[in-house]
Write a structure and sequence with these properties.
The longest helix has 13 residues, at about 15-25. Strand 10 and strand 11 (about 155-160) form a beta hairpin. About 50% of the residues are buried. The chain contains 8 helices and 11 strands. By secondary structure, it is of the alpha/beta class. The chain has helices spanning about 15-25, 55-60, 80-85, 90-100, 110-115, 135-140, 165-175, 180-190; strands at about 5-10, 30-35, 40-45, 50, 55, 75, 105-110, 125-130, 145, 150-155, 155-160. It comes from Candidatus Cryptobacteroides excrementipullorum. This is DJ-1/PfpI family protein.
Length: about 190
């Protein structure tokens, strides 16, 4: 899957999604927001309404599925029931599995590392973080769980929760553009 996409389902956590997308765009990453609801409008877990860039149908009609590289990223914000709604979208999860198996990067924050990325095979020995209380499912799969705010392990980037959303976005910028680019974005927002 070529490109960088963030997937939105009703019940997403708005800080984790919007702060992350903002930081990526500041870093020169053309992240596209994809609604899986069937319309461009998506409601957050706190009642904030957001318009995505494209529907899941538009995404499927426009995405290039061949030639996935580590520079191609699928981003999953957390929140409930948003993470559950993402995981329940079988077609999206099948795409994520194929994307990951072909070497693409997956990034998730809050509940999504457990609920969404927990569906990936071969997580044994991977270092990951997630929202407190969601770690048992990861540990059961052999993940080396940590309470760090953000963790990058190969082509998996995870964040602990909304308080780490900016750092999560910066980790994606560092992964795609290098640490210097991430540092420039951090400096520009007074970090």
């Amino acid at each position: 899957m070529k490109g960088v996409y963030m997937f939105f389902a009703d019940g997403f956590e708005e800080t984790e999604a919007l702060a992350t997308a903002d930081v990526m765009r500041r870093g020169g990453i053309d992240v596209k927001k994809v609604s899986i609801t069937g319309s461009l409008g998506v409601s957050s877990s706190h009642g904030v309404h957001v318009l995505a860039d494209m529907t899941f149908g538009e995404f499927k009609n426009s995405v290039v599925l061949e030639g996935t590289t580590p520079q191609d990223v699928m981003v999953f914000p957390g929140g409930l029931p948003g993470s559950d709604n993402l995981a329940a979208c079988k077609e999206l999860m099948d795409m994520m599995l194929k994307h990951y198996e072909e070497g693409g990067c997956v990034a998730a924050i809050c509940a999504a590392p457990s609920v969404v990325l927990g569906l990936l095979p071969d997580l044994k020995g991977k270092k990951m973080t997630c929202y407190d209380g969601f770690e048992p499912a990861l540990i059961e799969k052999g993940v080396e769980y940590t309470k760090e705010g953000v963790v990058t392990d190969g082509n998996i980037i995870t964040g602990r929760g909304a308080g780490h959303a900016v750092s999560f976005g910066l980790a994606i910028v560092a992964y795609l553009k290098g640490q210097e680019a991430a540092d420039q974005v951090a400096h520009s927002i007074m970090l």
